[in-house]
Write a structure and sequence with these properties.
By secondary structure, this protein is mainly beta. The strands form 8 sheets. The chain has a 4-stranded antiparallel sheet with strand order 3-4-5-7, with no helix packed on it. A 4-stranded antiparallel sheet has the order 8-9-10-11, with no helix packed on it. It is about 5% helix and about 45% strand. It has 1 helix and 29 strands. A hairpin with a 2-residue loop joins strand 4 and strand 5.
């Protein structure tokens, strides 16, 4: 495949951040470099498997654009030519920051993507609402199969996410109304499961929300762990005002789930939040936001709660959209955005932590996160990190 360099103009702030974070590491802090999404894209989602970085991102009109996929075999220095994920042009959207694509990797680098369809996406779900769309890369790695709708019973979908394990199981999650649902108290988190590497999916089933509801325009995040385990982060809307983050876990490949409330937030409005989940050398890490601050922590061995909760250092303005990366030494890079709002960009911030989740080195910063943007991060073989936006 044709490769192209990721050269791009750097602002003085970005250059200063790179010189500070890369050129002068303090307290043995891992170095951090900044990458801009190719094609001027937004909402990068990067996953690494067997030395290959798999990247999806959004381009075009925020209300009706496209998802693209690239891979890099040199950890982000060059990328392959883009492959469009959605066969229907303009069938993805980025408004609200949480409706773009999410990526999951199966055995041998099989690529799966899920997203909420735009106003032009077909077919429509119940009540002429947005479809939850899913596509997988063909085995040759040259094109995505035609996308498919996986929400057949629920309507008003949002917050799509997915996970894939090493046994050819693929799980797509989203939250939506059941038939006859009226408001956020009725919303449920739904799951559609495939047992044949994403070829076919069973009809969706609700797995959370009865008595709790789900925050209507917030994201969710899923991860497949070892030995048939599954992890999902979602925000509730109990009595409309209790918008807490819940950690849902399954030890039987999605046949049953247990839930625990890991972060309370009392607010009578949708906060359009996102979450992060990562399988690290020291266990599963979870990240989330609450009351304009971001947090992360290690999920307990019993999968029931988050221990050693850490909040981002210092103070900032409207911290949102957390991302996590971990290197072979067990160090973690916690990344988030600041100063972002509806149709407004902001800055990326990050802090490195050692294997015991103690901060190492200074906080890093780079300006220029675009409107509707997100941040993503991954580790390189030399234990350095890359932040992408």
């Amino acid at each position: 495949m044709r490769s192209s360099s990721l050269a791009f103009p750097l602002t003085a702030t970005v250059i200063a951040a790179l010189l500070f974070a890369v050129g002068k590491p303090m307290q043995n802090a891992p170095s951090v470099s900044v990458l801009r999404v190719p094609e001027g894209g937004v909402q990068p989602q990067a996953e690494v498997l067997d030395g290959v970085v798999h990247l999806i991102y959004f381009t075009g009109d925020a209300t009706a654009g496209d998802l693209s996929y690239m891979r890099s075999r040199d950890y982000g220095r060059t990328f392959s030519s883009p492959i469009r994920v959605n066969r229907q042009p303009g069938s993805a959207m980025a408004t609200g920051n949480i409706r773009g694509g999410q990526i999951a990797l199966g055995p041998n680098g099989q690529v799966y993507v899920a997203w909420i369809g735009s106003r032009t996406a077909q077919p429509r779900a119940a009540s002429d609402s947005a479809p939850v769309l899913y596509a997988r890369l063909n085995h040759a790695g040259t094109a995505f199969e035609p996308e498919r709708m996986v929400n057949h019973l629920s309507w008003g979908a949002d917050g799509a996410t997915l996970a894939a394990d090493g046994s050819n199981n693929v799980y797509v999650f989203w939250h939506a109304q059941p038939p006859g649902g009226k408001d956020e108290r009725n919303r449920r988190l739904w799951m559609a499961k495939s047992v044949d590497a994403g070829r076919t999916f069973a009809v969706e089933t609700p797995i959370f929300g009865d008595g709790n509801g789900v925050c209507g325009c917030c994201g969710s995040r899923a991860l497949a762990g070892p030995n048939g385990s599954l992890y999902v982060l979602v925000r509730s809307a109990t009595k409309i005002v209790h918008r807490d983050i819940w950690l849902l876990t399954s030890s039987d490949r999605g046949s049953s789930f247990q839930g625990s409330d890991i972060s309370e937030w009392e607010i009578g409005a949708c906060v359009m939040s996102s979450e992060a989940l990562l399988s690290s050398p020291r266990g599963i890490l979870a990240g989330w936001e609450s009351e304009k601050q971001v947090y992360f922590g290690r999920v307990s061995a019993g999968m029931n709660h988050v221990e050693t909760q850490v909040d981002a250092p210092g103070s900032g303005n409207n911290r949102k959209y957390p991302a996590l990366a971990s290197n072979a030494r067990g160090e973690t890079l916690f990344v988030w955005t600041e100063d972002m709002a509806w149709k407004k960009g902001g800055s990326a911030r990050w802090q490195a932590y050692d294997a015991n989740l103690r901060p190492v080195g200074p906080e890093g910063r780079a300006d220029g996160v675009p409107a509707w943007g997100l941040v993503s991060a991954f580790a390189r073989p030399d234990d350095s990190f890359a932040v992408m936006f």
